[in-house]
Amino acid sequence: MIDSHAHINAPQFRDDLEAVIRRAIAVGIEKIIVPGYDLPTSLRAMELAKKHDLIFATAGIHPHDASKSPKNYLNLLEQYATDEKVVAIGESGLDFFRNLSEKNVQIMRFSEQLELAKSLNLPIIIHNRNADDDTIETVENIGNTHGVLHCFSGSQRLADWAIERGFFLSFTGIITFSDEHHGIIRNAPKDKICIETDCPWLTPAPHRGKRNEPENVKFVLEKLAEIWEMPVEETDIMATFNTERLFPKIAK
Ligand SMILES: [Zn+2]
Ligand SMILES: [Zn+2]
Q1: Cα of 240 to ligand 1 centre, how many Å?
Q2: How far is CA 62 from CA 59, 86, 113, 137, in A?
Q3: How far is the CA of 252 from the centre of ligand 2 (A)?
Q4: How far from chain centre, in Å, is Cα 23?
Q5: What is the domain partition of the chain in residue ranges?
């Protein structure tokens, strides 16, 4: 299994990270992608990736943090991306649900990171919440064709557009307690679907209410297998294959 999006660089894991990684390995997780959401957490992800073979990092500024990023942030992300274990730019994107940064600032930071990803030939990790139209417009403007809509929560129209452009869709534990996006999963080509925990948030059933961690990606995998009506083992092979195409630098 791969957890394609796990924030074990977040402060919630400061005290027991080694145990969390051991539990992940014990359930059969072979790779964990740790996305940065600002400059310090991008560096922290890189530090973890250096220490643990199974961990890979990404470098980016989350829309919540868009207005707090220093002026030279793009140069720094570009520098981080030269690290062999930094496998994508992001997570970046638009969040018009919580609106912790102003809309136009979010769009500007997102555009800049899309440009960076394109120029470095790296995938972009996109966070989208209540911003389907602006996500489509911003990506179309820059022209990226490689990346993922992580924690997919958009419309069928957004899913169709993303797949048409070459993007992957990634699903979290939300699919274990809500069937809202099961139709979108069924309608999508199987070779475009990835799974993630987005921990420490979005804990899947049956552990809702507790801190989420990478080992719980197994519950997302089991639910995906149920939706696909496929054995769990084959579902795992497919999802792993997809994540390795999404992040070519992890597939060695
Ligand atoms: Zn996100
Ligand atoms: Zn995230």
Answers
A1: 20
A2: 10, 16, 10, 18
A3: 24
A4: 21
A5: 2-250
Token pair belonging to 60? 């980016």
Q: Which CATH class is domain 2-250?
A: alpha beta
Contact (CB, 8 A) for 204 and 176: yes
* Nearest-ligand number for the alpha carbon of 149: 1
Distance 127 CA to ligand 1 centre (A): 4
Cα of 134 from ligand 1 centre, angstroms: 16
In angstroms, how far is the first alpha carbon of the chain from the final one?
15
Ligand located closest to 95 CA: 1
Ligand 2 centroid, distance to 72 Cα (angstroms): 23
| Ligand with the closest atom to the CA of 37 | 2
* Cα of 182 from ligand 1 centre, angstroms: 19
- C-alpha 119/C-alpha 127 separation (Å) is 20
Tell how far the Cα of 83 is from the centroid of ligand 1, in angstroms.
Answer: 23
pLDDT by residue for the chain (252 residues), tens only, comes to 999 999 999 999 999 999 999 999 999 999 999 999 999 999 999 999 999 999 999 999 999 999 999 999 999 999 999 999 999 999 999 999 988 889 999 999 999 999 999 999 999 999 999 999 999 999 999 999 999 999 999 999 999 999 999 999 999 999 999 999 999 999 999 999 999 999 999 999 999 999 999 999 999 999 999 999 999 999 999 999 999 999 999 997
The contacts of residue 35 (CB under 8 Å, 6+ apart) are 5, 7, 45, 57, 58, 60, 88, 90, 91, 125, 150
